[in-house]
Specification:
Strand content: 15-25%
CATH class: Alpha Beta
Largest sheet: 4 strands, antiparallel
Low-confidence stretches: none
Number of domains: 1
CATH superfamily: Creatinase/methionine aminopeptidase superfamily
CATH architecture: Alpha-Beta Complex
Oligomer: single chain
CATH topology: Creatine Amidinohydrolase
Bound molecules: 2-amino-4-trifluoromethylsulfanyl-butyric acid, cobalt (II) ion
Amino acid sequence: MSIAIKTQDEIEKMRVAGKLAAQVLQMIEPHVKAGVTTAELDQICADFTAENNALSAPLNYGADQNGEGGFPKSICTSVNHVVCHGIPSAHILQDGDIVNIDITVKISLDDDTTAEQDRTYFHGDTSKMFLIGDVSPENRRLCRITQESLYAAIKKVKPGNTFADIGATIQKYIKKAGRYGIVKDFCGHGIGSVFHEEPQILHYKNADNRKMQPGMIFTIEPMINLGKGGTVLDKDDGWTAYTVDGKNSAQWEHTILVTNTGCEILTLRDDEKGIQRIMHN
Ligand code: MF3
Ligand code: CO
Ligand code: CO
């Protein structure tokens, strides 16, 4: 199987999708505080996305032919020992919590006369950690080093480097930071008019020696645990992934375009001071 090289037109549309996903994270920020439920955050994000003429990609994602078993909400909210794919609920955020909010929007930029079945949607996928009130130094450090590992990996994105360089960089960075667990059960992914497409982006040492090429678009989304890297799925909902030992987990995600000289972060937010949108790596 091969990795898509996006056309200039597709790249333009992915810029729009990525920007909107980043805007959802910026918009939700003042709402993410102690006392709010994750279901309230879901509703606010879903409304904002709809107002911007886009759809929330997680809603019903993965449903079977009978329309059952799909993800039931519009965003993922993963609190404390939830690694990823947490389902927004009546759960109230508490002082000291850390929570990942993962946004994927899909937007059609076809003209108004295009019939629904003829539309092509483009995805923007990004997540960040929010710290609720007084977070322990241990948890703050977990969130920080996870974001730094993402940035270290982004700095390796350029034509000629391999996908293995991404995983090796993250593993090296995390190992240097201390005794953390890297999650291996979930990975980053190619993205475009399909939410999850080739390649899989592994966040640990691996042998994917395929070279990055200009026009490829994929996510990098490391999940790092305070304890072991293992995960367990919730038996009842089939989605929520917990750490195997109940210790906390952090994740940050960006959607990245490979350019001629490095990369462009399609989902960069205004609050990101430590990194440039366009990188000459
Ligand atoms: N946004 C997640 C990712 O980074 C996927 C969420 S799929 C869902 O790939 F169904 F769980 F929402
Ligand atoms: Co993703
Ligand atoms: Co995501």
